[in-house]
Design goal:
Blueprint lengths: L6 E4 L15 H14 L3 E4 L6 H11 L6 E7 L2 H9 L4 E7 L2 H6 L5 H15 L5 E7 L6 H13 L4 E6 L6 H12 L5 E6 L6 H11 L3 E4 L13 H11 L11 H13 L16 E2 L2 H9 L17 E2 L8 H10 L6 H17 L4 H12 L1
Parallel strand pairs: 1-2, 1-8, 2-3, 3-4, 4-5, 5-6, 6-7, 7-8, 9-10
């Protein structure tokens, strides 16, 4: 399947609001919306206006910003919620209802036939309002596939813009996601959206295989924040697509990712994880001697992502027992010091010996190099 024609629906302002530390003010929501719009996401998904009076007002404010990104709001499959959504002036309405036995029994209590009737009523209304319409099942992976296909085929026959598959509890494996989305692609003409939670660590992989299977839209949030462990992180999806082909994400302003991640991390009071995709502090740090030597000769030997494309730089760590003499020589060159290979190897041996007894800093290594030079 071609991966080229896809769109990102960033849900930081909807799913992200469900993160335990998220309490976004209207001003902060506007800042987030502008940052994501500058980055180039195609859609911004906003909290349902039915959630609170402020949520209703915020939807209207963001919808009226004149952004390039389309604004969507996510609502229950209920006519009153749909009317509230249309009133805010958003470009599209994302309708959702649970279809798994768990949610039908312990949530809304409706049968599949009742779900279909309700979906037809809500969708028919929205299609008269000039908005883009998506209909998604919730907890799709724990729903009976035949129930899902009945619902999807019914709304697809109505001419809906997009249907959604939601791995609401993060239970799906890449193989399961691929098979479900691929089967759905054979049955509907509408676009297909995938929303995947990260409870078992598969959100990025699941989003990627959903695209391979024929999905057209992927839900993300900045740093993956959301309910529980959150959903597919924006940076993670970008990294995965870039690793397949940098041209897939050339439409986005990649150097903005660091600013976006830092901004959200600050607002929700967390640190960017050290191993975060692209923006973690160790993402482009190399330490082992054999790795560092190869990186100096040709970065692609150990880097599948080019830090320069994200406005970042690689760092080669030298002050440790695993260091190699090629790296020490590179550091000497950075300092403008001309040393013979034998001198470099002596400094390298000294670094290794000292690092076996205590932690070293870059200043310690530099002092040894300056001493050797003198």
């Amino acid at each position: 399947m071609s991966l080229e024609n896809f769109a990102i629906i960033d849900s930081t302002l909807r799913e992200g609001e469900q993160f335990v530390n998220a309490f976004f003010t209207t001003k902060e929501k506007v800042e987030i919306a502008r940052l994501l719009d500058d980055f180039g996401v195609e859609y911004l998904e906003l909290t349902s206006p039915a959630a609170s009076p402020q949520s209703h007002q915020d939807c209207g404010i963001i919808a009226d910003l004149g952004l390039r990104a389309k604004t969507l709001t996510h609502v229950r499959c209920h006519l009153d919620d749909a009317k509230h959504a249309v009133d805010t002036g958003v470009d599209g309405v994302d309708v959702v209802i649970g279809t798994s036995s768990h949610l039908r029994e312990f949530g809304h209590g409706k049968s599949i036939d009742q779900i279909i009737d309700l979906a037809q009523e809500v969708i028919a209304y929205l299609q008269t309002q000039g908005v883009e319409v998506r209909f998604s099942t919730e907890d799709s992976l724990r729903s009976d596939p035949e129930d899902l296909f009945r619902v999807y085929e019914t709304v697809d026959a109505m001419g809906i813009d997009r249907v959604g598959v939601a791995d609401t509890v993060g239970v799906g494996t890449p193989r399961q996601i691929y098979e479900l989305v691929y089967a759905l692609r054979q049955r509907v003409r509408a676009d297909i959206e995938f929303h995947g939670h990260n409870d078992s660590g598969c959100a990025v992989a699941n989003a990627f295989v959903a695209l391979e299977a024929g999905a057209t839209h992927i839900d993300t949030s900045v740093l993956g924040i959301g309910e529980r462990n959150g959903i597919t992180p924006l940076g993670g999806l970008v990294a995965r697509l870039y690793a397949s082909d940098p041209a897939l994400v050339a439409k986005y302003d990649l150097p903005r990712l660091l600013e976006i991640d830092q901004h959200i991390a600050h607002l929700v009071g967390v640190d960017i994880p050290f191993n975060n995709y692209i923006t973690g502090f160790s993402a482009f740090t190399h330490k082992a001697g054999i790795h560092a030597k190869a990186i100096l000769n040709h970065p692609s030997t150990y880097e599948i992502l080019r830090p320069e494309d994200f406005g970042l730089t690689r760092y080669i760590h030298v002050a440790h027992r695993l260091t190699g003499w090629n790296v020490i020589r590179h550091r000497a060159q950075q300092l403008g010091l001309v040393l013979a290979d034998e001198q470099i190897k002596q400094v390298t041996s000294q670094v290794k010996t000292l690092a076996d007894s205590h932690a070293l800093t870059l200043d310690d290594v530099d002092s040894m190099l300056y001493a050797a030079h003198q």
